[in-house]
């Protein structure tokens, strides 16, 4: 399922918490003021459990669990290097955990339990909430509810299960406040090796969470660039694809900001054995960090795709028309999000052989393409 129906935030505390009813009351008041939505409360156990049901058949549950969380649930995020960077004492915090507040948001009255999915399949109905706008709405509502809970009762750690991240309670608001998608929704698993003596280490990123938006994860192979710089590019790539009129950068194209300071190539890699399909992002240029790949095509190789140099075009008329149509469609996609599309030729014009399909570059909100 691309768009997980059940979004959960688990707030972990080092003490008993008696604030659940006030948390729910505050959420109901803020959400009505924010969106005009009024939630009914068809089920409640004061201080322990509340089920809310509202517009667009959205169900929200708040549950207080007066016991420690199972440490086995956190083995994967604890194995992530980023978890230790975000919260060096995360293991100690988890060991001190004594109670939890679980917040779940889903579409439909049945949720996405195996029983519910089987029942819907038997009667030929699709799962509810399976669109990107509905998925984003669930993420944003769960984040809002968790932020309100954190304000009432500051937790030690928040486990955001959609991206399987453990976030310090005191910094959760900074993660949850930005517009979706944000770092809250994409867990960067780091990998690579230490550099040899005198060499900088090379770090790569394999994401968890992008698949919920785009159906694929993102891979950046190890490079000398700081992992945080590559991570920001991943988030930009995801935002371009999920904004209004947005789109996934096409296979083989490149993108970068309007100031020509950064450029990455995108390759759509099909699923391999025991793996998911991936978007592979390869850095070509990052001026802030003094990085220029041998494959980077400089700005002076840009040409007008509506009047391309004849020597760069295919000789076959049909191929030439197909290439011109491809450029026109990609220019339209970029312009719909207020970006610019450019085409670049690789190598000197005078000596470059006429390629059947020259590489191209486009510029979305953050983007341009090159070859």
Automatic annotation (TrEMBL):
Residues 340-371 are annotated as: Disordered. It comes from Allosphingosinicella deserti. This is Uncharacterized protein.
